Structure formats: structure tokens, C-alpha cells
Amino acid sequence: xxxxxxxxxxxxxxxxxxxxxxxxxxxxxxxxxxxxxxxxxxxxxxxxxxxxxxxxxxxxxxxxxxxxxxxxxxxxxxxxxxxxxxxxxxxxxxxxxxxxxxxxxxxxxxxxxxxxxxxxxxxxxxxxxxxxxxxxxxxxxxxxxxxxxxxxxxxxxxxxxxxxxxx
Length: 167
Ligand SMILES: *[C@@H]1O[C@H](CO)[C@@H](O)[C@H](O)[C@H]1NC(C)=O
Ligand SMILES: *[C@@H]1O[C@H](CO)[C@@H](O)[C@H](O)[C@H]1NC(C)=O
Fold this sequence. Notes:
30% strand, C-type_lectin-like/link_sf, alpha+beta, C-type_lectin-like, CTDL_fold, signal, C-type lectin domain-containing protein
């Protein structure tokens, strides 16, 4: 009888712990813990239900930037609406949010990436041919260039840039 009660209580406690761990993992926006793990990460604010975070303290290659965001329970940033474009433009700051930051886009090794060189027309007419990727490594990645007139800049993926994460 007593043994059963002890087992029941133990299981109850374990379930509480599992619940606590799960909810911690589901909340990357725990500001206090983020401050501890990434003291120089700056929260740019909220748009379309997500927060953008910038790390200007260390420059990394694209792969390392993606891993860095994921290590904080986030992802490399995407910019997928005019609200997000406007938000990032208004977040420009000449000390804290300036120059180039990796975002979550890189070359695709697909037909749509190519143009017939002489005529400037997209290579879409090959669709009856299989498109072979071969053993290439990713070469070009996209960055968001924060400025008063922002733009998307293409760089070689192994070059070092700042990092733009999102929740
Ligand atoms: C840029 O960021 C710094 C540090 O957070 C802040 O003091 C300053 O007011 C900001 N500048 C603008 C133009 O928002
Ligand atoms: C990216 O940076 C990491 C960490 O410095 C390094 O180990 C890795 O080889 C780099 N990757 C590329 C493709 O340059």
C-alpha cells in the first residue's frame, strides 16, 4: 500500500518535471535566460507575431549563424511580408543594427536559380530534363543590409557577417 503511494507520488513529480522542461523548451523568449546565454543579443521587437534578434558582437559564416540561432531556440530570420520589410527598415540603428546580417536563404541548386546568359531569360525550359545537383557545396547566401536604404546582399556563405535571428 505505502509502496504504491510512493510510486504514485514519484510518477507525479516526474510528470511535473517533464512538463516544466517541455514548457521551458517551448519558450525561447524567456528574456532572463536569453540575457544569460547571449548577453549581447539585441531584441529588435515584434512584427507579425515574431521577434527579430540581432547579434552584432561576433561575425560568423552562414552555417555557424544558423546553428547559433538554433542553439538559442530560434531560427535564422526570414523576411516574408511588407510589414517585416518595414519593421526592419525602421529598426535601423547606426550603432546596434547596421550593415550585413545573415538571413535564412541560400542558393537552391534548382533551375530557377539560372538565367540564359545572352538573352537574360530564366532557365525554365529544361523541365523535361532531370536537373542534377552533383556534389556542390552551398556557395552564396543572403544577408540583410541594415541601412537607411536597406537591401538584400549576396555573399559567399563562408564569409563572416552579423546574425539576424527570429523566434
Ligand atoms: C540606437 O541604439 C542605442 C542603444 O540601444 C540607443 O541608445 C539609441 O537611441 C538608438 N538610436 C536610434 C536612432 O534609435
Ligand atoms: C563556418 O564556421 C565554423 C566555425 O568557425 C567552421 O567550423 C566551419 O568550417 C565554417 N564553415 C564554412 C563552410 O566555412
